[in-house]
Specification:
Elements (H helix, E strand, L loop, with lengths): L1 H10 L1 H14 L4 H15 L2 H16 L12 H8 L4 H14 L8 E10 L2 E8 L5 E8 H6 L3 H13 L8 E6 L3 E6 L7 H6 L8 H20 L2 E2 L8 E3 L5 E3 L6 E2 L18 H4 L7 H16 L13 H10 L11 H10 L6 H4 L35 H10 L5 H10 L2 H10 L6 H6 L1
Antiparallel strand pairs: 1-2, 2-3, 3-5, 4-5, 6-9, 7-8
Bound molecules: adenosine-5'-diphosphate and magnesium ion (MG).
Magnesium ion binds next to loops.
GO cellular component, one term: cytoplasm
Protein name: G protein-coupled receptor kinase
GO molecular function, one term: rhodopsin kinase activity
Length: 443
């Protein structure tokens, strides 16, 4: 129930608005707190120059004793009441809104504006919601072209994945509907162009390091968001990274993305030539590692305006790109590569990702010697003369008892298995020696 209220009153924007209206009408004593939280969240999105002003305003409004909006703190009875907030009326209104949310969407819901780009199954154009004025991008997928190229399953997967994600670093889906000829995905409008365009078409080729670092961080946040939901992106490349009007970037085109529940691996060949990881090219099993390889290629491309294994405008067969990816060393000839950039790219372009490394079993770069103690002054505690006069009493004993709870179950069980004791005991069991708690104690 608590989660339901949190989702309704905090995370869902309409629920949040309604909750505030409800406070205003019937619980005015909480209004200041609600307003404070709202102002604070606006503040966190404000531009730097307005942030200072907003901060001063928030401090004056909520943190001065004489101010009407002073936050005296929600304590005691009020805090109790907060926990039991439930109002029939508000439930009904929320339900009405949820019904409204389910309304059928058609072309009439939007005004259509200019074309923004072309995709494999149709164009992407700017649209505006008639009754709110909100601008979006609409990716249209031609139904007949989808059928001819057998792209239906992919389109549905893209929609289902887009629906699940909600991140500042991914182009999010607002509506999915269809008309006679097209399936339409209505998404965040990104009108600053894609990174491929910025690398090759604007001014000197390549992107300056300050921007490369900024975009790489946002891309990484987007990839991590997908991975946290067990989704592998599989089409990481500058062309799929779009900029919005403020200059922030997001990942788009989740057409190749795939959900891989824990433990599941795939070996399907998917991606774009030049960005595909060795494990895909060798058709081995893989999970999320392939996105980090492609990020390495993309960072390289932002800096050098070419790919690690394919030069700009080089006419070369995919087989040759594959061969180079698998066999050649990545070289950094462009003057813009500095040491940290080379280092991060080398780490991402790790040819030896394998099932072992996916599950975190990469060989450590340094291993301590078994017979060396790596600590200063190891004999410092050998001398007990300074504590000889300390007597231990019953209270101390009690504390020691509380402390010494014995084996920690998971670690202990692992140890039993790794050391072979488990197998041994199991064998004994077969010989009529049952595994009793006493046996364990003896162990
Ligand atoms: P496909 O999956 O067919 O490759 P994309 O999703 O990559 O289609 O979209 C095709 C092109 O449309 C992109 O390269 C980009 O130029 C433009 N585009 C896609 N999504 C958006 C968006 N949300 N905002 C603005 N332009 C977009
Ligand atoms: Mg695309």
């Amino acid at each position: 129930m608590k989660d339901t209220y949190q989702s309704l009153c905090e995370l869902q924007p309409i629920g949040r608005k309604l909750f505030q209206q409800f406070l205003q009408a019937s619980k005015p004593q909480y209004m200041a707190t609600a307003e404070f939280l709202e102002d604070l969240s606006d503040w966190s999105f404000a531009e730097d120059e307005t942030k200072e002003k907003a901060k001063r305003r928030i401090l004056t409004k909520f943190c001065r004793l004489e101010s009407r909006g002073f936050l005296s703190g929600v304590t005691g009875k009020d805090a109790e009441r907060c926990k039991h907030l439930s109002d029939k009326n508000i439930d009904e209104i929320v339900l009405q809104w949820k019904e409204y949310e389910k309304q059928r969407i058609s072309d009439k819901y939007f005004y259509e504006f200019r074309t923004l780009g072309k995709g494999g199954f149709g164009e992407v154009c700017a649209v505006q919601v008639r009754h709110t004025g909100h601008m979006y991008a609409c990716k249209k997928l031609d139904k007949r072209r989808l059928k001819k190229k057998r792209g239906e399953k992919m389109a549905l997967l893209e929609k289902q994945i887009l629906e699940k994600v909600n991140s500042l670093f991914i182009v999010n889906l607002a509506y999915a509907y269809d008309n006679k000829t097209h399936l339409c995905l209505v998404m965040d409008l990104m009108n600053g162009g894609d990174l491929k365009f910025h690398i090759y078409e604007l001014g000197e080729r390549g992107i300056c390091m300050e921007r490369v670092v900024y975009y790489s961080a946002q891309i990484t946040a987007g990839i991590l968001h997908l991975h946290s939901m067990d989704i592998v992106y599989r089409d990481m490349k500058p062309e799929n990274v779009l900029l919005d009007g403020k200059g922030q970037c997001r990942l788009s085109d989740l057409g190749l993305a795939m959900e891989l529940p824990k433990g599941k691996m795939i070996c399907q060949k998917a991606g774009t030539a030049g960005y595909m990881a060795p494990e895909i090219l060798r058709q081995e099993y893989y999970r999320m590692s392939v996105d980090w390889w492609a990020l390495g290629c993309s960072i390289y491309e932002m800096v050098a305006a070419r790919l690690p294994f394919k030069d700009f405008r080089e006419k070369v067969q995919n087989e040759e790109v594959t061969r180079r990816t698998l066999e050649d060393e990545c070289r950094f000839e462009h003057k813009r590569f500095d040491a940290p950039t080379k280092d991060i790219i080398r780490r991402l372009l790790n040819k030896s990702w394998s099932i072992a490394s996916v599950v975190g079993l990469v060989q450590p770069p340094w291993v301590p010697k078994a017979n060396v103690v790596y600590a200063k002054n190891v004999d410092k505690f050998g001398d007990t003369s300074d504590v000889q006069h300390i007597e231990l009493d019953a209270k101390d004993e009690e504390f020691f008892k509380e402390f010494s709870t014995g084996a920690v179950p998971i670690q202990w069980q692992k140890e039993m298995i790794d050391s072979g004791v488990f197998d041994e005991l199991n064998d004994c069991k077969l010989n009529q020696l049952t595994l009793t708690s006493r046996t364990c104690t003896i162990l």
